[in-house]
UniProtKB/TrEMBL annotation:
Coiled-coil region: none
Name of the protein in question: Large ribosomal subunit protein uL13
InterPro entries tied to this protein: Ribosomal_uL13, Ribosomal_uL13_bac-type, Ribosomal_uL13_CS, Ribosomal_uL13_sf
Signal sequence segment: none
Gene encoding the protein: rplM
GO biological process, one term: translation
Function description: This protein is one of the early assembly proteins of the 50S ribosomal subunit, although it is not seen to bind rRNA by itself. It is important during the early stages of 50S assembly.
Subunit structure of this chain's protein: Part of the 50S ribosomal subunit.
Family the UniProt entry places it in: Belongs to the universal ribosomal protein uL13 family.
NCBIfam families: rplM_bact
Keywords from the UniProt entry: Ribonucleoprotein, Ribosomal protein
PANTHER family from the UniProt entry: LARGE RIBOSOMAL SUBUNIT PROTEIN UL13M, RIBOSOMAL PROTEIN L13
Length: 141
């Protein structure tokens, strides 16, 4: 089998709009990563950036099932001894409404330069408004 190489100038990249209100966190994140990586295309190549751009609105209204709102923990470390901080999903979403969805998407992307570049192609907004109307994003359900 031959490896597929697609020139970046030949790739037509679309913009998609996803409304995350009343949807599950993991389900939205997996769909976003599939579009970012370009796995919806017949010429998908794992080492190239051929995916689309994704705009997510209403990220503050995303849901988790069961007791995850109180029990799911997010950790960060300051780098100093004893500097670990933790907070629950509900605390994090009230402090920074886009953070849980961004963390879920970033964790599903490949680690390294390609993953960092792909993460730049997703735009997450807490409310229903976004500044990307000029790109005419296609609405996804």
């Amino acid at each position: 089998m031959k490896t597929i190489f697609v020139k970046p100038s030949k790739v037509e990249r679309k913009w998609f709009l996803i409304d995350a209100a009343d949807k599950r966190l993991g389900r939205v994140a997996t769909e976003v990563v599939r579009l970012l990586r370009g796995k919806n295309r017949p010429y998908y190549t794992p080492h190239q950036e051929i995916g689309d751009y994704v705009v997510i609105v209403n990220a503050d209204k995303i849901e988790v099932t069961g007791n995850k709102a109180q029990r799911k923990m997010y950790y960060r470390h300051s780098g100093y001894p004893g500097g670990i901080k933790s907070e629950t999903f509900s605390d994090l979403i009230s402090r920074k409404p886009t953070a849980p969805l961004e963390k879920a998407i970033k964790g599903m992307l490949p680690k390294g330069p390609l993953g960092r570049q792909l993460f730049r192609n997703v735009k997450v907004y807490a409310g229903p408004n976004h500044p990307h109307s000029a790109q005419q994003p296609e609405v996804l359900e």
